[in-house]
Amino acid sequence: MTAAADERASRLDLLRYQLNELNGLNLTLEELTSLEQDHKRMSHLEQLHDSCSDIINGLDEEQHSLRGQLSRYVESLNQAKQLDEALTEPTEMLDSALIQVDESIAYLRNYLSDLEIDPAGLQRLEERMSAVHDVARKYRVKPEKLMEKLLGIEKELDQLENADVVLADLASLVEKQRETYLQLSNHLSSQRQTTAKRLGKEISLAMQKLGMPGGKFAISLNALEIEQAGANGLEQIEFQVSANPGMPLQPLSKVASGGELSRISLAIQVATIRCGSTPTLVFDEVDVGIGGGVAEIVGQMLRILAADRQILCVTHLPQVAAQAMHHFQVQKTTQKQMTRTAIARLRDEERIHEIARMLGGVQITEQTLAHAQEMVNLASINPSC
Question: Distance between CA 181 and CA 192 in Å, rounded?
Fold first, then answer.
């Protein structure tokens, strides 16, 4: 704390010194622009005087001055215009040019009268510009950035001088946010407790229908220390499962096989169908290790899910395939030591034959085809699980 306080005091001293130095320079962007323009002019007074004098001589004071020639041309055109009105426009243009030349001559003469060589004034300008550039080099900025640097120092100084007030305000804000967080988290925890019990029962019930008799699903809410709590609340949520009767609940990721994971996932989706928002779900061989009536229930559950989202299911069971709204066949072929995979959508008749093949193997009989047709027809009736 002492080291931090010393560092803060040292920084405050430096900022106050810099603030006084830049304020003492009393520089504005307008003055800087004026300084540069005045210095450029006063450094070249002789050149400006000679240039303006030469121009005035050429325009008006030499024997064959431009103004004299232009005046004669205007007078000559005025006379010619009396003979042909077509010369009116060029006459007016030359007359306007003569007026412009007269105004330019008058301006240049006034400029020359004010153009006085002032060594003392030039020295003052150079001293002022030198002071500005010295300070700019010291702060490692361009002269035109000195005002911006001053504003930055003022801002940092204000923050440091009022750090105690700011810290107190921040501490108060943090405490208010903490109270709000705890209030919302406790409300969330209460809802989770209620929902976890209900959802565990619903998923466990669905597991019984999916060929996992005696299986149990539970949601464990493990309380976190307040220092570990985050955006997800005051608990760490863990899905636990017992796939067989008499087995203790264990983390889902450690005890469930691939097929069991697919079926439990299906059970979760069915139980949460009203609140799910995933547009597409993929089930890879969800029917592993089951058959008969359970397989048909799996297919019915998948069809329920497909009512308001896209379901993709890889299956080898006709009971599941018959429930699908669309049927694709995947085939692998090997040619010249290269294996290729092809997928094709089956038409209605092809679909019946494929389901019959899944039912009866290589030999497909009329009875097998009729059975396949019946399965597809029954699947079109809304299933109830």
Answer: 16
Q: Mark the ranges of the chain whose per-residue pLDDT is less than 50.
A: 385
Question: Among all chains, which residue has been given the structure tokens 């007269």?
Answer: 102
- Give the H or E element holding residue 15: helix 2-25
DSSP 286-303: TTTT--HHHHHHHHHHHH
The pLDDT tens digits of the residues spanning 320-354 come to 999 999 999 988 888 888 898 999 999 989 999 99
d(CA 144, CA 5): 34
Contacts of 342 (CB under 8 A, 6+ apart): 330, 331, 332, 333
> Does the predicted TM-score (pTM) go above 0.90?
no
- The domain ranges of the chain are 2-161, 195-272, 273-385
Among the CATH numbers 2.60.120.260, 3.40.50.300, 3.50.50.60, 3.20.20.450, which is that of 273-385? 3.40.50.300
Identify the architecture of domain 195-272 in CATH.
3-Layer(aba) Sandwich (3.40)
If DSSP codes are grouped into helix, strand and coil, which group holds residue 215? coil
